[in-house]
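Quick start: what a row looks like.
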Amino acid sequence: MSKNIMKYLENDRFAALAGIKLVEVKPGYAKANMKITDDHLNAVNIVQGGAIFTLADFAFAAASNSYGQVSLGINANISFFRPPKGNILIAEAKELSSSKKIGNYNVDILDEDGEIIARFNGIVYKKKDEIKID
């Protein structure tokens, strides 16, 4: 199913526009990265918070949909700790808990030195629908 989820998420046009690449998916887990360009910087020349949130949200979507059941975010928050160093950001999403209808995930966002720069927490609602791969 992991390869199918990776193929399915290639259809995420906003993640593609942001330059996000899905690296790994397995049940309850996903890893994605994003190369930082000038387009990701804010007025003070650090990565814009929305770009970091988008990367985390994409990893969250991959991890939460990794079982093949349509799962949609119903709540998300992020805490920023420090600006990143280097040119690559990595988001690693891990399932914290899961029930029949609700899943909770943490996503750590790391810079290329492996330093945590932000943590995202998201909750999904699991629909009855299965993901359809064309």
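That is the whole record. The first strand starts at residue 20 and ends at 26. The beta strands are 20-26, 29-35, 69-80, 88-98, 102-111, 116-130.
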